[in-house]
Amino acid sequence: MTDTLDIKITQTPTSRLAETDFNNLPFGKVFSDHMLVADYEDGEWKNFEILPYGPIELSPAISALHYGQAFFEGIKAYKHADGKVSIFRPDKNAIRFNKSADRLCMPQLPEDIFVQSIAALVDIDRNWIPGKANHALYIRPFMFATDPFLGVTPSATYKYIVLIGPVGPYFSKPLRVKIETHYTRAAEGGMGYAKAAGNYGSSMLPARKAAEEGFDQLIWTDAKEHKYIEEMGAANAMFLLDGKLITAEAKDTILDGVTRDTVIALAKDWGITVEERKVSIAELIEGAKNGKLTDAFGAGTAATIASVASISYNGEEYFLSDPQTREFSKKVLATLDDIKYGRSEDVHGWNYMV
Ligand SMILES: *Cc1c(COP(=O)(O)O)cnc(C)c1O
């Protein structure tokens, strides 16, 4: 299983590191010097290569562009005070990568190859990892279909690519969120649990409409009745209601988030009751009114722990407690940061050292 992956390496002769402004890192706009590319052909993965980041040539007929055989992952690497580098739980992303591939009729990538390929790229560009608080190296692995013909049928060829780049915080302030009751992100039997590119394309119009109404994010509801909370934008929605941590069960329509899983593990460590179940809009509104909803946040790799300032439903806005005073999410964030940046013991074995 753990054969060392053979990767051809071509270093860039002209690093962009010195000219990169690490005090201004808009999310997803800055890429490091290198990227990793591999091909799937004749039923196997081959041509693993790390080369200078830049454009690649593709046929305009590739089926990823026409029929959406494409999906991605999001992971972060952190620099510790002593210079060590860790990637947070990439083994979980490896498993999810293959779940997405399976749903889209795309080939599996062995988990150890996924993790090794990412670690090799992070290692080469380790000087690109910001050392500042709340900063990290964002890792974007993705796969897409490359057969150059028009036919609604699984491609026989694919590319696996990994891009990395330094990032700062995703959200700068607590969010005003709107509970969406018309548009849906995912339906039972659909592909909500996959990090499929198409799921994000379809979210943009509803997100823009909500933004025009002044909201920062949407909370998606179930496609059947619009009565139950699903996710918050591209993060899992989590709540502390009556002292219990509640969140939607990770089934068909829910992306099984690594951050979600991590928050649940911490809550259990602390003896907090965790309920993964249907979360009704009604109980949240009730909790917002009677003060029993003491915490609400989105959990995701990009967003980390994104506090919810207010929840709007049917034109009514319900303000929650001041995020600065919320014990649970503040403790989660502090505990997570201590582990990720190597300041406390990694008792769960979440850090993959590079
Ligand atoms: C990526 C993503 C999440 C968060 O998953 P993490 O593994 O924690 O980054 C949650 N919901 C959706 C829809 C996502 O795309």
Keywords:
9-stranded mixed sheet, D-amino Acid Aminotransferase, Chain A, domain 2, alpha+beta, 6-stranded mixed β-barrel, D-amino Acid Aminotransferase, Chain A, domain 1, 8 helices
CATH class call of the largest domain: Alpha Beta
- Biggest sheet overview: 9 strands, mixed
Helix content: 10-25%
Element-level helix/strand string: EEEHEEEHHEEEHHEEEEHEEHEEEHE
Q: How far from one another are the termini?
A: 19 Å
Q: What's the Cα radius of gyration?
A: 21 Å
The CATH architecture of the largest domain can be named as: Alpha-Beta Barrel
Q: So what's the overall shape?
A: globular
Class by alpha and beta content: alpha+beta
CATH topology grouping of the largest domain = D-amino Acid Aminotransferase, Chain A, domain 2
How many alpha or pi helices?
A: 8
Number of domain modules:
2
Number of DSSP-assigned strands:
19
Detail the poorly predicted runs. Answer: none
Measured by DSSP, the beta-strand proportion falls in 25-35%
Please tell me the overall pLDDT. 96
Question: How is the secondary structure organized here?
Answer:
Elements: E1 8-9, E2 34-41, E3 44-52, H1 63-67, E4 70-72, E5 75-79, E6 85-88, H2 90-103, H3 111-124, E7 136-145, E8 158-167, E9 175-179, H4 197-201, H5 204-212, E10 217-221, E11 228-232, E12 235-241, E13 244-247, H6 258-269, E14 274-276, E15 279-280, H7 281-290, E16 293-300, E17 304-313, E18 316-319, H8 327-340, E19 351-353
Parallel strand pairs: 1-3, 9-10, 9-17, 13-14
Antiparallel strand pairs: 2-3, 2-8, 4-7, 5-6, 5-7, 6-19, 7-8, 10-11, 11-12, 11-15, 12-13, 12-16, 16-17, 17-18
The structure holds pyridoxal-5'-phosphate (PLP).
